């Protein structure tokens, strides 16, 4: 309104500036906002989930979601995760009277008796096609005795009870004294229970009038079920001498059962009736060496300020030694054992903190020092499952402090592992769990990131199943997660910048009563944007895990600063190209009385379309920077090929439009110097976009730290860390005798 009607050259009295700009500003703003929202919500190039992690399986299929990139506490069991899957039998420690005998390296050389029978029968192995299958520890134990398992016929019975299996001794070795052992029939099995930490069997020997029960399990619990007179006074020191060296120790005990008066009574035999009034028979010592990958991975996680925690069902002393050996606890760092007792006989529950000496060997190997400067104010806490239960029930206020500094959690039942994960999540930790057994299923399911190292039970409940049977997968998952989040932010930024770039182009053209053509819109949306948006997300994760973490929110200062800076650069280049065009002596304005697309082609549209086409490519490359979360841009070969091909086509449209001039409604520009000037503007835009991203990455964090005061973290665990750093904690006993 208010414009004078002129000829094809647009002659006539110009309308007031505000009347010319205001309606088109309003229309373009409404169109641009709607277009941005549609692009962010409906564009096929922005996936509903981040980039899929590579090399992971879950139930035989790739999972469509990555690990959270801000994982703070990876939890790992010991056996099979930090240490080798198989256990090697180091030997047995027989018990004679009230004294332990020296370690016997070859259990098969034991004389016939309860200890040998316990080793040969107290297991849950079975035979499948002439192959023994079952727990690896049971396989090693039976293999060390040389006894052979035979499945018993269904009709066999001994002492009125059906026979489950028969264990036959090997041929007698020359030079051994004593009566040759006889076959033993297994009548009943009570399988291993993680909560009870033991298993038992009921057996019968030929010629024996009464059945016998054999029990194996954790030394502390088995000793508690034994007659105190059969437990030697040096039980604890002998046990500690092996566990302190990182060996796994299993106690063996036996008991003679009364003969059942009938088969029905025998079949109703309960576990509690079998596992009581036992006699301790000896200790089985097994060697469990660290995996070669464990120590380097722990060092990598600690260097990147990712806290590592061990949660295991093994002995506390063994777990502590393994933690020191793999560098989870540095030899120079202080380790404190937390011990709690339940209230009893009118006494309240008690809690004490006991410092322990540094252990320097694991199975005879020297402990590895992690290349991390130890904090003298920091203490690593180690506690057992019973202590953890007391803390949860009777010391809920102290529990968060213990969890913040807890590194070793031993003798943990499956439900306690799950509870530990939940308690850490209450402190706003992002918890990762890496396990390989059925005991870890609950914790794997509860964790923010569950990684199974086994194709069996644990793989069913965990989001990720690793093809690598070691904790090497943990840094890989974290790198994949960070790459996925950074890629998602990059795609978001690109889609936002793409919409704003097109909005600026349309806004400039609306002010002169023209617009982009339909084919031009199609070329931008379908050919340029879709191609680069799909391919830009194919850059892989960084090869090394760093300390930096990607932003946790879209509305963050780095993301918004990048958006605003790039938009300003895009607008400046397009406006610069527009005004340079209007200043040329050969420039002929379009006829504003004719609406678009009837006034196409024209010089203004041609220049704006040509520059904006390059800007879509430049923005895609600028927001796809590699470090620190992704590999360099040049590793994404399909993306580079697409950029080069599309850039060549756009350069050809400027220099020599040819056959595409008609379909795209482009105006031929005969001035070669002006064409080169447009390409110089493109080069300026390219350098400016990359320079802006680098400046924001390197200078913005330091500027923000200087401009705004240091704020207290909202994370609960961060607040506790700051609180504990300002006070002497944990409270240690003053007396050296404690």
UniProtKB/TrEMBL annotation:
Topology versus the membrane: Multi-pass membrane protein
Does the keyword Transferase belong to this entry?
A: no
Q: Where is this region: Disordered?
A: 44-71, 715-738
Instruction: Indicate the transmembrane segments per the record.
Output: 494-513, 519-536, 557-580, 636-656, 676-696
Which BP terms does GO give this entry? autophagosome-lysosome fusion; cellular response to manganese ion; cellular response to oxidative stress; extracellular exosome biogenesis; intracellular calcium ion homeostasis; intracellular iron ion homeostasis; intracellular zinc ion homeostasis; lipid homeostasis
State the compartments where it is located: Membrane
> In the record, what terms sit under GO molecular function?
ATP binding; ATP hydrolysis activity; ATPase-coupled monoatomic cation transmembrane transporter activity; metal ion binding; P-type transmembrane transporter activity; phosphatidic acid binding; phosphatidylinositol-3,5-bisphosphate binding; polyamine transmembrane transporter activity
Query: Which Pfam families does this one have?
Result: Cation_ATPase
Give the primary localization class: membrane
Q: Which GO terms describe its cellular component?
A: autophagosome; late endosome membrane; lysosomal membrane; multivesicular body; neuron projection; neuronal cell body; transport vesicle
Composition-biased stretches (Pro residues): 728-738
**Keywords annotated in UniProt:** ATP-binding, Magnesium, Membrane, Metal-binding, Nucleotide-binding, Phosphoprotein, Translocase, Transmembrane, Transmembrane helix
Which InterPro entries does this entry report, sorted A to Z? Answer: ATPase_P-typ_cyto_dom_N (IPR023299), ATPase_P-typ_TM_dom_sf (IPR023298), HAD-like_sf (IPR036412), HAD_sf (IPR023214), P-type_TPase_V (IPR006544), P_typ_ATPase (IPR001757)
Sequence similarity:
Belongs to the cation transport ATPase (P-type) (TC 3.A.3) family. Type V subfamily.
Q: What is this protein called?
A: ATPase cation transporting 13A2
Q: Which organism is it from?
A: Oryctolagus cuniculus (Rabbit)
Source organism phylogeny: Eukaryota, Metazoa, Chordata, Craniata, Vertebrata
Q: Which gene encodes it?
A: ATP13A2
């Amino acid at each position: 309104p208010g414009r004078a009607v002129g000829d094809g050259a647009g002659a006539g009295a110009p309308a007031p500036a505000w009347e010319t700009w205001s309606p088109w500003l309003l229309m373009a703003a409404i169109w641009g906002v709607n277009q941005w929202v549609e692009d962010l919500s409906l564009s096929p190039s922005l996936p509903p989930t981040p980039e899929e992690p590579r090399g992971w399986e879950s139930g035989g299929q790739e999972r469509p979601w990555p690990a959270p990139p801000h994982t703070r506490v990876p939890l790992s069991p010991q056996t099979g995760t930090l240490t080798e899957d198989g256990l090697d039998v180091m030997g047995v420690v027989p018990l004679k009277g009230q004294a332990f005998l020296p370690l016997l390296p070859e259990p098969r050389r034991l004389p016939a008796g309860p200890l040998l029978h316990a080793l040969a029968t107290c297991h849950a192995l079975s035979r499948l096609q002439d192959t023994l299958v079952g727990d690896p520890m049971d396989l090693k134990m039976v293999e060390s005795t040389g006894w052979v398992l035979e499945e018993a016929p269904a009709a066999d019975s001994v002492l009125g009870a059906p026979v489950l299996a028969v264990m036959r001794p090997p041929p007698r070795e020359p030079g051994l004294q004593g009566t040759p052992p006889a076959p033993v029939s297994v009548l009943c099995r009570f399988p291993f229970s993680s909560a009870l930490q033991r298993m038992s069997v009921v057996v019968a020997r030929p010629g024996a009038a009464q059945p016998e029960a054999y029990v194996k399990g954790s030394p502390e619990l088995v000793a508690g079920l034994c007659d105190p007179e059969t437990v030697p006074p040096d039980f604890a020191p002998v046990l500690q001498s092996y566990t302190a060296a990182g060996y796994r120790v299993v106690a063996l005990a036996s008991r003679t059962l009364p003969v059942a008066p009938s088969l029905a009574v025998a079949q109703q035999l309960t576990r509690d009736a079998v596992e009581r009034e036992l006699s301790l028979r000896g200790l089985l010592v097994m060697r469990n060496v660290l995996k070669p990958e464990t120590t380097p991975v722990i060092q990598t996680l600690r260097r990147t300020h990712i806290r590592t925690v061990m949660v295991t069902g093994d002995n506390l002393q063994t777990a502590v030694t393994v933690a020191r050996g793999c560098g989870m606890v540095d030899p120079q760092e202080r380790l404190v054992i937390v011990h709690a007792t339940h209230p009893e006989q009118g006494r309240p529950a008690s809690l004490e903190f006991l410092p322990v000496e540094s252990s320097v060997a694991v199975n005879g190997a020297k402990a590895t020092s992690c290349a991390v400067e130890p904090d003298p104010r920091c203490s690593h806490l180690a506690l057992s499952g019973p202590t953890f239960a007391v803390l949860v029930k009777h010391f809920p206020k102290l529990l968060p402090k213990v969890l913040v500094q807890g590194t070793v959690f031993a003798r943990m039942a499956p439900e306690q592992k799950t509870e530990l994960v939940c308690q850490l999540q209450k402190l706003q930790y992002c918890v990762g769990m890496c396990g390989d057994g059925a005991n870890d299923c609950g914790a794997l399911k509860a964790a923010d990131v569950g990684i199974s190292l086994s194709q069996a039970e644990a793989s069913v409940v965990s989001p990720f199943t690793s093809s690598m049977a070691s904790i090497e997968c943990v840094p890989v998952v974290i790198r994949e997660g960070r790459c996925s989040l950074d890629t998602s932010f990059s795609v978001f930024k690109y889609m936002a910048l793409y919409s704003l770039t097109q909005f600026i182009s349309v806004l400039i053209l609306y002010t002169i009563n023209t617009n982009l053509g339909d084919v031009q819109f199609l070329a931008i949306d379908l050919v340029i944007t879709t191609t680069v948006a799909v391919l830009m997300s194919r850059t892989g994760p960084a090869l090394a895990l760093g300390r930096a973490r990607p932003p946790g929110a879209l509305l963050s200062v780095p993301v918004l600063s990048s958006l605003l800076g790039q938009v300003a650069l895009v607008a400046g280049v397009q406006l610069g190209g527009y005004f340079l065009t209007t200043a040329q002596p050969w420039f002929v304005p379009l006829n504003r009385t004719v609406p678009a697309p009837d006034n196409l082609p024209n010089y203004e549209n041609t220049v704006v379309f040509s520059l904006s086409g390059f800007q879509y490519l430049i923005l895609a490359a600028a927001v796809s920077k590699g470090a620190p979360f992704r590999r360099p841009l040049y590793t994404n070969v399909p993306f580079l090929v697409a950029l080069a091909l599309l850039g060549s086509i756009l350069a050809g449209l400027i220099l020599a439009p040819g056959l595409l001039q008609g379909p795209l409604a482009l105006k031929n520009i005969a001035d070669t110097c002006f064409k080169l000037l447009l390409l110089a503007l493109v080069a300026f835009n390219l350098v400016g976009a990359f320079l802006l991203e680098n400046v924001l990455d390197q200078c913005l964090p330091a500027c923000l730290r200087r401009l705004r005061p240091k704020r207290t973290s909202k994370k609960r665990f961060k607040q506790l860390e700051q609180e504990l750093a300002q006070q002497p904690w944990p409270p240690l006993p003053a007396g050296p005798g404690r």
